[in-house]
Structure formats: C-alpha cells, structure tokens
Amino acid sequence: MRIGILSRKASLYSTRRLKEAAKARGHDVRIIDYLRAYMNITSHKPTVMYGGESLHFDAIIPRIGASYTFYGTAVVRQFEMAGVYSANESQSISRSRDKLRCMQLLARAGVGLPVTSFAHSPKDIDRLIDTAGGAPLIIKLLEGTQGIGVVLAETRKAAESVIAAFRQLDAYILAQEFIAEAGGADIRAFVVDGRVVASMRRQAKAGEFRSNLHRGGTAEAVKLTPEERVTATRAAKVLGLKVAGVDLLRSNHGPLVLEVNSSPGLEGIEKYTGVDVAGAIIEYLERKAAPGRTKDHIGY
After folding, report:
1. CATH number of the domain that 70 lies in?
2. How many CB atoms lie within 10 A of CB 87?
3. Which of 110, 209, 254, 280 is most exposed, with the fewest beta carbons within 10 Å of its own?
4. Are 23 and 54 in a shared domain?
C-alpha cells in the first residue's frame, strides 16, 4: 500500500515512528510537508501536487499542526476528493480543533464534560463565571494547545481580570469548572478505529495544574475503567475521529472529557505504556483503507 504521511518535519518522533511501522509491514511510505503541497481543483480530476508532480496514495495519515489547520485540512480534503483514504477525515480534524464546536457536539451526544461557559460581551463576565460554578475555575483560549492559553483563576477577582484581559485582545475564551479532586492529573486515552489501544495517567509537577508532558508533567501507564473506556471511544466517534488522543479527568461524578486531539503525539504514550501505537495505526489502515471509502461527512 502507498501511504502518505502529512507532516511538517520528517524528524519528529511521531512521523518517524509511523514511517518505521509502515515500512516494517512492507508498505511504500512517503512524508509530505503539507504546506508545500498545492492543489489542482478541477472537475472530475482533483489532484494534489508536490514539487511539480502529482501525488498518488492509497491512504494518508494527517499530522496537521494546530497553527496550520485551515491549509492542512484543505490538503486532506483534496486527497479525499481524489478518493484517497484518510486516517482522519478533514471534517473531523476541523471539528476537533474548534474547542467550542467540539464541546457542543460532545454535550449534545451526552458525553461527560466539565461545566463550561462561553460568551462574547465583557458585560457578561459575572454570569460567565457563575455558570462555570464560580472560582476557582479554568479559563481557556479557544486556539491554545499543549497547555498554552490555559489559566487557573483561583479567585473571582483573578477570573474577572483574566477574562477582561483576554477580551481586550478580542480573544475567544471558555470558562470551565475546576475539578479539584483530579489532583492535577488527567488521563490520555489513545483511540484507534473505535478502541482504546493505550492509556497513560499524566501528573502535573508541583505548583502546576497543567499535566502536559511539555510542561514538565510525569506519566505512567494506567488501566481504564469500563466507563472511562466507553467515554473515550464515544468522544472520538462523535467527532468522527478514527485516530485520537482523548484527555479525561477523573471526577466525583465520573470521567469528564477535557479535549480530543486529532494529531496526538506518539512519544509519550509509547514510552510510558510500551505499546506499539504506530503499528496499531498502520494495522487500522490495512483493514480499512480502500479507494473511495472517504466520504467527507460525519453522522453526528
């Protein structure tokens, strides 16, 4: 099978592992910098061009950076128009990247979430805070990744100041209840084709509430409860993602979804669990990839 990995850098751990796993199974693999790809949008013969040549793959694995979602998903969509199977479809990537839309879709499907509020007018700050349960609360930028743009406001006054500052920058923000019982820990469940293939518990360092490994957090393999496993797979399904990193919190009223990542990193999850996650993704493509199976629509 001819597999294209859409990634900015061939040296990234996740990109390298996917290439190694595919080659180990006898596939022809090529890494494509999707920002250098360009498209010939022609009726009956849509093509993706790269360095003057047309690209022809049986399947692609999008590794689209958050900063390049618009162009990256356009490239994925063009491959879909040409009948190429994508590990994650363009629409599902777009849905997961829009935090507000993601939360709305998960809420509609009844997936457990922290209480979350969203508003535009600075006149509604008090009601925004009250809706999220009051201080302490988490304030998130809609465009933030890897813990960037996420603030813990421990008092109401701090929450008002942070929200007002973000609104002065015309930034869209979410206010979310703080789950104190989680103790600065969350769970990353790695979902591939409707099942959790690996999971780890991430713990924030002392004095930090964000558990991201990029921010000095630690991790260990963890066994999910049946409810946590169902929550993770449902969250991925609602967004239409076949490959997803679902971040969960353990709360007093069950597992809550924090975020769903359409390009989850492989380094941490493989290191701490010992699971060949890259291999699981390639095996999924072997089972499902076929010309014309990409439909660019999601049931929810």
Report:
1. 3.40.50.20
2. 27
3. 110
4. yes
Return d(Cα 288, Cα 300) in angstroms, integer: 21
> Do 102 and 210 reside in the same domain of the chain?
yes
What residue spans of the chain are helical by DSSP H? Answer: 13-24, 69-81, 90-97, 99-108, 125-131, 156-168, 226-239, 267-273, 277-288
- Evaluate the CA torsion angle 36, 40, 46, 47 in order and state its sign: negative
Note whether 152 and 252 are same-domain residues.
Answer: no
Structure tokens given for 137: 């609360």
The chain-wide mean pLDDT, for the chain, equals: 88
Segments in 169-252 forming alpha helices (H): 226-239
Supply the pTM of this predicted model: 0.86
- Reported as a single tens digit per residue, the pLDDT across 24-35 is 999 999 999 999
- E strand or H helix at 203: strand 195-203
CB within 8 Å of 124: residues ≥ 6 apart: none
170 and 212 part of one domain:
no
- Within a domain: 297: no
Q: Are residues 18 and 160 in the same domain?
A: no
Quote the number of domains for the chain.
3
Question: Does 295 reside within a domain?
Answer: no
Instruction: Please tell me the distance from the alpha carbon of residue 237 to that of residue 242, in angstroms, as a whole number.
Output: 7
Same domain, 102 and 62: no
| Biggest CA pair distance of the chain | 60
Checking if the pLDDT of 144 tops 80, the result is no
How buried is 133 (Cβ within 10 angstroms: 0-12 exposed, 13-18 middle, 19+ buried)? middle
* CB-CB contact of 22 with 29 (8 Å): yes
Q: What's the CATH code of the domain at 270?
A: 3.30.470.20
With b for 16 or more beta-carbon neighbours within 10 A and e for fewer, the 239-273 pattern comes to bbbbbbbbbbbbeeeebbbbbbbbbbbbebbbebb
Residue 166 lies in domain = 116-178
Tokens of residue 154, six digits: 């421990």
